[in-house]
Design goal:
Chain lengths: 126, 365
C-alpha cells in the first residue's frame, strides 16, 4: 500500500509516504522485525501536533517499549485504529495495514532530511 | 577493566544455528527468543517447546545424613522417597529467601538440588557452611551438566520416543535413564504451567538430546523457545522469578509462598525467624495485578490505590494466553483482597487494574 520505494525513512526507523501534503507514517520492516511481537500501540489523538524527531507514539512488544518519533511535523488528521485493536498488523504489514497515522505536513521541506529506501537500507544494515 | 566474558552453555552453537537472538542473562549468553515470543508461548500451551536451561545449577548432596541435611537447609517438608522431588525455599537465619529450588531424592542417601543460575555459587557456599556436623558430601556439578526443559501437552509423547520410561513418571517424579550411552536424569517438572520434563545430562548427551528433539519434534509441533516465552509462561502460571520476585530481603510469607513453609516438620534454618514473623505480621505481600485497560505493565511500575502509592511491580508483561497485561509486586495490605481496584503506572499514566490471588492462569498439571 505504501511501497518502500515510495517512502522516505528516518534513522529511527519510521517511514513517511506523502500525497497531497499529507504524510502517512509507520515503522519500517526492519524495525518491526527488531521489535518483534508487537502487542500494544498507543497513537496520538487526531488533531494533535507532532514535531519531527519528537516521540509521539509508543510501541510495546512482549519484552520492551519503543518510542515512535514523528518523521515529519504537522497535525495528525487520521489515526489507524485497526492497529490499536490488532497490533500484530504492524508486524504483518508495516507498509500496508500496519500504518500508524496521517500528518498534514507543516514543513514539506522536512522530507529532504529523510532517506530514500536505498540509503535507509544501507544505514539500517550497519 | 573489561567486563567478564559471557558464559555459554554446551548448546550455544546449536541455539544460534536455530535462530536464537542471544542476550546477556545473569552473565550467560542465552536466547531471548527464536521465531518470536508469542509463537513460542503458544507452542508450549498447545503443542510443545524446548528450552535450554543448562545455565541452572546442579548440586548433589550425598551421604548418611543427606536427607537430614536437605531438611535443614529447606523450609518445606522434603521427600525422602527416592524418585520424587520437592519445591522449597532455602532460607537464611533471618528467614530471608536465599533461593528457590527443587530438590530430588535419587536414592536414600543421594539428593540433587536444581538451583537458579545466578545463585548457584552462593547456594553451594551456603550449603558448605551449614554442613558441619552432618555426614554429607556436597558436589557442585553445574559445569558437568547441561539441561533441557521440554514443555507442553505433546512433551510426554515426544520425550517418550527417546526416554521410553519418562511418560510413566508422576508429576515431580525423577529417574535416571540411559541415553546416548550415558545416564541422564529425567524430571517431570517445569516452569511453564504445562506438563513436561527437565533432563540433566553431560554436555555431550545434552547436545545429542537437543539434536534428537530437533529431528523428531516436527510432528509434535516442537519449537525452540527462549527466555522471553519462559518468562511469560511462568508469570501466567504464578511462579516466582528469584532475584526479581523474591530475594534475601523477603520471607516466604511475604512472597505469598506460605505453603512451602512447614513449621511442624522440626528445626530448619530460618524457622525461628519465620515464627516471629508470623506473630508480628508483615506489611507487604507479593500480589498479582491484572490490567483492566490496554497497556503493557513493566517491572518497576508503581501501583496505586486511588492517590496512595502501595508498592511496585517486580515482574510484569503482556500475558499472551490471557490477552492482557499482568504483573506481580509487593503491595500493601489494603490491596491483598482479590478484586481490589488499583492502578498501575505505565509511561507516567495510571492504567486501571485489579488484584488477583493465585496464578493468573490455572496450570494444566
Amino acid at each position: 500500500m505504501f511501497d518502500e520505494k515510495d517512502c522516505r525513512f528516518a534513522a529511527t526507523h519510521e517511514w513517511a509516504c506523502v500525497a497531497d501534503g499529507v504524510a502517512t507514517v509507520g515503522i519500517s520492516d526492519h524495525a518491526q522485525k527488531e521489535i518483534s511481537d508487537i502487542v500494544f500501540v498507543e497513537l496520538p489523538k487526531p488533531g494533535a501536533r507532532v514535531e519531527q524527531g519528537k516521540a509521539c507514539a509508543v510501541i510495546e512488544s512482549v519484552k520492551a517499549a519503543a518510542d515512535f518519533f514523528a518523521p515529519v511535523s504537522g497535525a495528525v488528521v487520521e489515526v489507524n485504529d485497526a492497529i490499536v485493536d490488532n497490533p500484530a498488523l504492524v508486524n504483518q504489514a508495516p507498509h500496508g495495514d500496519g500504518w500508524f497515522f496521517k500528518i498534514k505536513m507543516a514543513k514539506p521541506a522536512e522530507m529532504d532530511v529523510l532517506m530514500d529506501f536505498e540509503a535507509y537500507q544501507r544505514s539500517a544494515s550497519h | 577493566m573489561n567486563p567478564a566474558p559471557l558464559l555459554r552453555t554446551p548448546l550455544f552453537a546449536a541455539l544460534v544455528r536455530a535462530g536464537g537472538r542471544m542476550v546477556d542473562f545473569h552473565g550467560w549468553e542465552m536466547p531471548v527468543q527464536f521465531a518470536g515470543i508469542l509463537a513460542e508461548h503458544r507452542a508450549v500451551r498447545t503443542a510443545c517447546g524446548v528450552f535450554d536451561v543448562s545455565h541452572m545449577g546442579q548440586i548433589f548432596i550425598s551421604g548418611r545424613d543427606a536427607h537430614r541435611f536437605v531438611e535443614r537447609v529447606n523450609c518445606n517438608r522434603m521427600t525422602a522417597v527416592p524418585g520424587k522431588g520437592t519445591y522449597a525455599h532455602v532460607l537464611a537465619e533471618d528467614g530471608g529467601i536465599l533461593d528457590d529450588a527443587i530438590t530430588y531424592s535419587l536414592a536414600p542417601e543421594r539428593f540433587l538440588a536444581i538451583v537458579n543460575a545466578a545463585t548457584a555459587a552462593q547456594d553451594f557456599a551456603w550449603f558448605q557452611r551449614q554442613a558441619a556436623g552432618f555426614e554429607v558430601a556436597l558436589d557442585n556439578t553445574g559445569d558437568r551438566y547441561g539441561m533441557l526443559a521440554v514443555q507442553g501437552p505433546n512433551a510426554p509423547a515426544l520425550v517418550g520416543e527417546l526416554f521410553p520410561a519418562a511418560p510413566a513418571l508422576p508429576r515431580f517424579g525423577v529417574a535416571e535413564m540411559p541415553f546416548a550411552g550415558e545416564t541422564a536424569i529425567v524430571m517431570r517438572t517445569g516452569y511453564t504451567g504445562e506438563d513436561g520434563f527437565e533432563v540433566a545430562a553431560s554436555p555431550g548427551a545434552t547436545l545429542a538430546f537437543w539434536d534428537a528433539l530437533m529431528a523428531r519434534g516436527g510432528r509434535y509441533g516442537l519449537v525452540p523457545c527462549g527466555l522471553g516465552s519462559r518468562d511469560t509462561l511462568r508469570l501466567e502460571a504464578g511462579y516466582l522469578l528469584y532475584g526479581a520476585d523474591a530475594d534475601e530481603t523477603r520471607t516466604p510469607y511475604e512472597a505469598n509462598c506460605g505453603w512451602v513453609v512447614k513449621l511442624q516438620k522440626g528445626d530448619f534454618i530460618g524457622r525461628d525467624a519465620l515464627l516471629r514473623r508470623k506473630e508480628t505480621g508483615f506489611k507487604e505481600m507479593l500480589t498479582g495485578v491484572r490490567l483492566l485497560d490496554r497497556g503493557v505493565p513493566r517491572a518497576g511500575g508503581g501501583v496505586w490505590l486511588g492517590d496512595r502509592p502501595i508498592g511496585a511491580l517486580t515482574s510484569a508483561t503482556f500475558a499472551p494466553s490471557l490477552g492482557c497485561g499482568i504483573g506481580v509486586g509487593y503491595l500493601a495490605a489494603v490491596a491483598w483482597e482479590p478484586g481490589t481496584r488499583v492502578a498501575v503506572e505505565i509511561h507516567g499514566a495510571k492504567v486501571a487494574a485489579e488484584t488477583v490471588r493465585g496464578p493468573f492462569r490455572k496450570a494444566s498439571v
